[in-house]
Amino acid sequence: MSRGKLIIISAPSGTGKSTIISWLMREHKELNLAYSISCTSRAPRGTEQNGVDYFFLTPEEFRQRIDNDEFLEYEEVYTDRFYGTLKSQVDSQLEAGQNVVFDVDVKGGVNIKNYYGDQALSLFIQPPSITELRKRLEGRATDAPEVIDQRIARAEFELTFADKFDKIVVNDILEYAEADALKVIEDFLND
Asked: Would you list the DSSP string of 87-102?
């Protein structure tokens, strides 16, 4: 069995990144994609489960793992709100021949790409505009207005990283964005 490859997908919150990843994994089993399960110090949302959607850690547990150099990448997005990817998790999945998908913030995406180089494809999902992004976040009705404002400010910052990625897919019409992402990933895996 050959070693897997890495597919890094980053985007501002609300851009459709998780929707595109879910579609790829559900509709394209031939890609042998396996979700990289990240760690976070935030509380679970909705039906999220530990070890399935994320590994949920306390901020103290997260800091201890940082001190032990266990993360491939991590970010303190807001005070005591960490996200990160464990090296051991990724290595075991690659050895099993899985193509590991990363759903990470832009800095994490850039760090993983730098760490793995040509073994990794980095894909940036871009919203058609900040105005459209705000509409999508408000339409979700999951965040308070001040949280949406934080997410928009962060999105404006994250958009400055787009040129550090191998490919950019603009998610204006979801079906087109899904098809574009699929083509880029197929080309990478068949290379």
From this structure: HHHHHHHHHTT-EEEE
pLDDT digits (tens, 9 = 90+) for 18-45: 999 999 999 999 999 998 888 999 999 9
Model confidence, pTM: 0.81
Q: Which of 11-15, 35-39, 112-116 is predicted most confidently?
A: 112-116
Alpha carbon distance 25, 157 (integer Å)? 29
What distance in Å separates the CA atoms of residue 144 and residue 190, rounded to the nearest whole number?
Answer: 43
* Inter-residue contact 57 to 39 (CB < 8 Å): yes
Does 89 have pLDDT greater than 90?
no
Identify which of 161, 190, 186 has the alpha carbon closest to the alpha carbon of residue 75. Answer: 161
Tell me which residue of 125, 114, 136, 120 sits closest to 180, measured CA to CA.
Answer: 125
CA distance linking residue 111 with residue 108, whole number of Å: 5
pLDDT at 1 over 80: no
β-bridge pairing 99-103 and 33-35: parallel
